[in-house]
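Hey,

The postdoc asked me to send both predictions to you directly instead of through the lab channel. I've kept everything plain text so nothing gets mangled by the mail client. Protein one:
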Amino acid sequence: MTMQKTVLAVLAAVLMLSMSAPAKAQSGLFDAIGKEHTKEGSPERKLLQGLGTIMRSTQGLDYKSELALGESLALKGFERYGMPVEDKHVRRFVNLMGNALAMNSNRPDIPYHFVVVKSPLKNAFSCPGGIIILSSGLVKSLMTEGQLANVLAHEIAHVAQKHAVKTIQQGQLLQGLSQMTAAGMQGEEGRKFQKAVSNMATTLFDTGLSHSMEFEADRLGMQTAYRTGYSPHAMIEVLRILEERQKGSTVKGSWYGTHPPLDQRIAKLNGELKAYPDWKELRNSTGRLNWYKERIP
């Protein structure tokens, strides 16, 4: 099995694990995966490789197109950071927690999919359409479920506010692309799409989103965590952990290279914490995170 077939199969398994029946109908691109549909050259395989329908309008991307971009970017993320952790318990735990948080977000009406990838770098990314990637290096650095919940809530906020989509549109990364189908995504049009996806990957995985978007995701992430019953203070704890480990850490492709300075974020979050006077009464840890961390390579 080639690397790309393995990536496609693993991502499909992760997405199917966390989908309900209605969600499957929404994300039809992955419904097609099967023995007949993963053959080299098949239309469905091309869709999964990023040769999907891209429709633009004055209102922006529709959900199906947003998800197609997200899937393409997720594959780029796997190529860059590593394959998903295969342990079914870890997958289920992260997806159950993530979807519980998503239900309390500002965009609860789409399916969300959470993947932990094998990477020593400490970072997390949200792809358009609700695909969220966390590095094993970041997850293993966390001490409590509350900290993990706040990281997930931060990434959910990016999806809810369509930060990646807005960045793509502002940067005109889809410029020159019109409505396309798998049949038409050949030759020059296909090359345009692949170049656009590569540019988007560079923006998300290397440059990062704008500071204002990151601060907004911090604020809304704390709100989502609080609504779900987790202490919003745990996000400050996450940043303190990263601050302690910053010296000597790799910058490119990590949290340190794709997010605003930690001291600025901590100061802003301490200000936001005043909106949650009862945060000390909320749960932060049951101790079970360690069991899952031990299952991550």
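Protein two:
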Amino acid sequence: MSQPFKDPFNIVYFIGFILVMLIPTLPASLSWLKIVGLI
């Protein structure tokens, strides 16, 4: 517990949390990229 960043589970959990938080913004991000013309 003294080195939480070395724990693979914490890293996977953190990445999963970020992905879950980004899911609602995916459609808006994709449409914004289409408007800008990057896609």
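Summary for protein two, as requested: Helices lie at 8-22, 26-36.

Thanks,
C.
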